[in-house]
Design brief:
- The protein is of the alpha/beta class.
- The strands form 3 sheets. A 7-stranded parallel beta sheet has the order 3-2-1-4-5-6-15, with helices on both faces. The protein has a 6-stranded mixed beta sheet with strand order 8-11-12-7-13-14.
- Helix 1 crosses helix 10 and helix 4 runs parallel beside helix 5.
- The longest helix is centred in the last third of the chain and has 17 residues.
- The protein binds NADP nicotinamide-adenine-dinucleotide phosphate.
Amino acid sequence: MRKPVRTLHYGLGAIGSLIANLAAKRRDVEIVGAVDIAEDKVGRDLGELAGLGRPLGVTVRPSLEEALQGREADVVIHSTGSRLERVSPQLEEILSAGLNVISTCEELAYPWRRHPEIAARLDELAHRKGVRILGTGVNPGFIMDTIALALSGISADVRSIRAVRIVDAAKRRWQLQRKVGAGLTPEEFKTGVQDGTLGHVGLPESIDMIAAALGWELDGVEESIEPVTAQSTLSSSYVTVRPGQVAGLRQTGWGKKDGEAVITLELEIRLGADETGDRVIIEGHPALEMTIRGVHGDIATAAIVLNAIPSLLTSPPGLRTMIDLPLVHWRSPSR
Ligand SMILES: NC(=O)c1ccc[n+]([C@@H]2O[C@H](COP(=O)([O-])OP(=O)(O)OC[C@H]3O[C@@H](n4cnc5c(N)ncnc54)[C@H](OP(=O)(O)O)[C@@H]3O)[C@@H](O)[C@H]2O)c1
């Protein structure tokens, strides 16, 4: 068996805890540290926090410095936020410590067009320290971008790509239900979209990633977000939504070339969504369509972060995206 990869888990909310939970069950991973600033998490054992029902002997510390304390890690798993401007100081701190990092920050999935200065800074720092940084997850990172690109591998010509994702928010964590506005009035939803607290983050990043990989120079990327209101009372373990209140959202992103939408990403996340699943449609030669059923976004995100470790660690230093990496896939932990 190969030497286990040593992980340090930075950000232990719903996703960070799930990643730690899955990591702890793998024999090829050794958890060496944990960081979170939340008062109710600092000082606790990671095993208890991550729902393992047994201690791991790893205490959650409020800073990277305290979590490291002479320990060595191969990669930091970072999961604290979606906005690059907010999390980039954390990412810079990790890179400055000479550590590789995989983050679920959506805007890190392909930051080159929307945040060129931060992207260049992270890339330069990673090069200087000889380490790598990657943003990934289910979406952005896989289901509406990497999958579409993989499918285009059997295309002789691609004219357009469309991906449609429909998620029943009632089956997902509260953070996601809150993010899609479940239980709000349409007016509150509008305010939340305007101040950036509501809505999925990542469609423009997926579009940019697809365009970069296909070699398409886009005129621009557009996005729209609309509330979907409930027709009848809907409920999840966290919220009850009355008729007329917001059950979730419909969000669309377009990448346009010569005035035509060549990349269209349609996302519907709401309580009570039926016909859930993912579709990728490629217009071209040949015409292709793929449907995937049953992708649970939280598990998929936690899994891809861990599955990406070997692909990232064998990549050259710098800021990497999913299109730079060797194929990310599951591996038997006994290898
Ligand atoms: N790419 C994808 O496909 C994908 C999929 C799922 C999730 N995500 C993203 O991953 C992120 C994490 O998701 P989540 O649901 O787990 O969020 P969450 O429940 O809000 O967890 C974030 C955790 O990080 C902590 N934190 C915040 N700032 C920190 C800092 N400076 N240092 C250390 N810890 C800090 C938070 O503490 P406080 O509560 O005290 O702030 C919280 O415990 C979100 O941005 C989410 O949108 C991406």
